[in-house]
UniProtKB/TrEMBL annotation:
<keyword id="KW-0328">Glycosyltransferase</keyword>
<keyword id="KW-1133">Transmembrane helix</keyword>
<keyword id="KW-0808">Transferase</keyword>
<dbReference type="InterPro" id="IPR003406">
    <property type="entry name" value="Glyco_trans_14"/>
</dbReference>
<keyword id="KW-0812">Transmembrane</keyword>
<keyword id="KW-0472">Membrane</keyword>
<dbReference type="InterPro" id="IPR044174">
    <property type="entry name" value="BC10-like"/>
</dbReference>
<protein>
    <recommendedName>
        <fullName>Core-2/I-branching beta-1,6-N-acetylglucosaminyltransferase family protein</fullName>
    </recommendedName>
</protein>
<dbReference type="Pfam" id="PF02485">
    <property type="entry name" value="Branch"/>
</dbReference>
<keyword id="KW-0325">Glycoprotein</keyword>
<feature type="transmembrane region" description="Helical">
    <location>
        <begin position="12"/>
        <end position="34"/>
    </location>
</feature>
Amino acid sequence: MSKKASTVPTPHVIWFGWKLVIILSVSLSVFAILRLHFNSDFSSPVSSIYGSRSRISRGSFHFVGPPKIAFLFLVRKELPLDFLWGSFFENAEVANFSIFIHSAPGFEFDESTTRSHFFYGRQLKNSIQVVWGESSMIEAERLLLSAALDDPANQRFVLLSDSCVPLYNFSYIYSYLMASPRSFVDSFVDTKEERYNQKMSPIIRKHKWRKGSQWITLVRTHAEVIVDDEVIFPVFQKHCKRAPPPDASKGKLNPKLKKQNNCIPDEHYVQTLLSMADLEGELERRTLTYTVWNQSATKMESKGWHPITFTYANAGPQKIREIKDINHVYYESEYRTEWCRSYATSVPCFLFARKFSRGAAMRLLSEGVVGPFDASALLATST
């Protein structure tokens, strides 16, 4: 019985086999590169950071007592409306709120600088010099949030300016905020080319770019995302800068200046960060602070857009009622209407307003706007 001889592969067969291996390896490498590129386009580095982040030093502590609202005042120096806010806090349980103030470095709140004891010693010790339209503004916001997060009882965080006023008493505002598990962040797609800087890519993609009001109200988890951010903030520091203001005396703008990006960090940072962290589904995409903007094209060209200041004359009961009666906000760039609701109940869109002069604030105080209120009235009107 003869035994078959084993066949030895020819050089041609060996070369063909190696060729298949090389083609397969190259194909897998190309596929991996394309997949990595695809993921970098449509997923954000922030979302992965958010998913893996840990705030063991703060977030894991349980607290005793009621949850607090942290009122975060971002001011130039003093608080000109401290008398109104003092009356507001007089009608609140001390255990239900805390106060933090970012003021000019070295400025202290005591009996010589404020009329309300609620603000004594509430200034940050690590405050910085803030310049409007620069990244120092959002850095100051992050410092306020960081300080407030040290108290685990702080569960809501309200950012306020030195010209903000409450439109309701503390009981109503507390019930309104604690009834919602969402943050209130005015956020919409920014379609203007002048704001987004292409140099932000690939870290910040254009389709994730957002704009909105600086005056936000956050739940604790979203405040932590902002403070923990080490990716988006440096990009804003480097590439989000406002353009020089136009000089009306020289006629039209220099063509070179027209090509510059005019990025205002505080109108984009929080909105874009939360968009990139895939958290927009957890937001009420509207602000709780009412503002009237200057609509004069002439003034806009020479001074830029600025909010109108309420005075004693135009802060009467009728105007305040008009603000309180607003129940929806329309966003033209997205053809989106935000109806202001708490679950199935229609609620006022705004809890605060700006900019108010001392005279306007005095009128609010004299007419009892921040006086006692039955919190159950929040759910009295159902749709």
